[in-house]
Design brief:
This protein is of the alpha/beta class. It has a domain of 236 residues: 3-Layer(aba) Sandwich (Aspartate Aminotransferase, domain 2). It contains 12 helices and 12 strands. The strands form 3 sheets. Strands 1-9-8-5-4-2-3 form a 7-stranded mixed beta sheet, sandwiched between helices. Strand 2, helix 4 and strand 3 form a beta-alpha-beta unit. Helix 3 packs across helix 4. The protein is globular. The two termini are 30 Å apart. The model has no long low-confidence stretch (mean pLDDT 97).
Length: 390
């Protein structure tokens, strides 16, 4: 969480005291208004607020018609929820390399495409924009969909377009660790009417037909789904947080850029390349070292001086080698529901191995992150720069 205050308290209290804070209500309609505001912010015609980024990813994949017999390409460096969302549809994830930007390598994604590939999922990890031009070229060439996992990139952009709006659909997370937050929450966005209608039905299958006029204009037939609906309490907090987002991004960029200049001038470590530094959320400064040993030594030196660096190889379920359910191919509790045991998925690319993405492991071992705080003072930035350059 970056910033929170009286505005969120007031918004929550207003929704709570209305005593009418189910999503469909005659009071504040906070979720509805947040969706309208989020659509305008991202620049898309359709948005759905949900319980999590996982819910948004799964709903988008369902909206794309993905299921058993299909493959979805995901990078080997992302939170496990990206791959689990694929399994939730009955499809299987195919794991591809990242490149020096810490995001999906379009060239390796293309190498992993098969006749069963239905979608590519670039992940804007740490708010770093993926190479959406490269991914779009690959997707167009092979006739596959693009689902942007922007769960760590609320408010980011790529060459002037908001992340989440470049592909066929986008997914966001608003949990406690994200740029804006309601503690938990997520959103799916798309410009595709069919994806939207299917996701609408899937994300709230038990209530969408019974409350309000949510099905007005919907042409897709009803089908069984999940229940990822949120209440107006979540919507109220998110609306207050959204008003803070431009200021948070501005201050993150100012402090990230100031620290980056200090690192560049000293030459102790190089800055990792970016697909769009201006569109990056600037929550993280990525430092690149010549070797894993140098990276680890620098992190230990900084820790001794009170500065914590994160080496991404240490980030648990963000690294494919630690995706236990994936690597051991246990996609569901009941065998009949397990995508890895489904006849439709026989012969798909599921020969996972710990060393299958060597470039990914190399970058994860040679990169160190400095988390950026939008509220740093100039003195704090100067001190951090001195520690990094010592």
């Amino acid at each position: 969480m970056f910033r929170v205050g009286q505005e969120e308290i007031d918004a929550f209290a207003k929704a709570l005291l209305s005593r009418d804070f189910f999503k469909i209500n005659n009071a504040g309609r906070e979720v509805f208004h947040f969706e309208e505001e989020w659509k305008e912010t991202i620049g898309v015609p359709y948005a759905l607020t949900m319980t999590s980024g996982f819910a948004a990813l799964t709903s988008a994949l369902i909206g794309m018609g993905i299921g058993p017999g299909d493959e979805v390409i995901v990078p080997g460096y992302t939170y496990i929820a990206s791959a689990l969302a694929v399994l939730a549809t009955g499809a299987v994830p195919v794991i591809a390399e990242i490149n020096g930007t810490m995001t999906l390598d379009p060239a390796d994604a293309e190498r992993k495409i098969s006749k069963a590939t239905k979608a590519i999922m670039p992940v804007h990890i740490q708010g770093f924009p993926s190479d959406m031009d490269g991914i779009a070229r690959v997707a167009k060439k092979h006739g596959v969909r693009v689902l942007e996992d922007a769960c760590q990139a609320d408010g980011g952009s790529y060459h002037g377009r908001r992340l989440g709006s470049v592909g066929d659909a986008g997914a966001f997370s608003f949990n406690f660790y994200k740029l804006i937050t309601a503690g938990e929450g997520g959103a799916m966005v798309t410009g595709d009417r069919t994806i939207y209608e299917r996701a609408l039905i899937y994300h709230d299958a038990g209530a969408v037909a019974f409350f309000g006029n949510q099905l007005d204009g919907i042409t897709q037939p009803l089908f069984g789904g999940s229940e990822f609906r949120v209440s107006d309490l979540t919507g109220a907090i998110l609306r207050a947080q959204l008003r803070r987002m431009p200021g948070i991004l501005e201050d993150l960029h100012r402090n990230r850029d100031a620290l980056a200049e200090r690192v560049k001038s000293a030459g102790k470590a190089s800055l990792a390349p970016s697909n769009d530094s201006a569109g990056d959320c600037a929550t993280t400064l990525a430092l690149r070292f010549e070797s894993a040993g140098e990276c680890r030594a620098s992190a230990e030196k900084c820790a001794a001086r009170g500065l914590s660096l994160t080496v991404p190889i240490d980030t648990g379920k963000h690294v494919y080698t630690n995706w236990t359910q994936i690597m051991e191919k246990r996609g569901a509790l009941h065998p009949a529901m397990d995508p890895y045991r489904m006849e439709a998925n026989r012969g798909l690319q599921t020969d996972y191995a710990p060393d299958m993405c060597p470039a990914t492991l190399d970058y994860l071992n040679r990169t160190a992150y400095v988390g950026i705080d939008p509220d740093w003072t100039e003195e704090r930035i100067e001190k951090i720069g001195a520690i990094l350059n010592a």
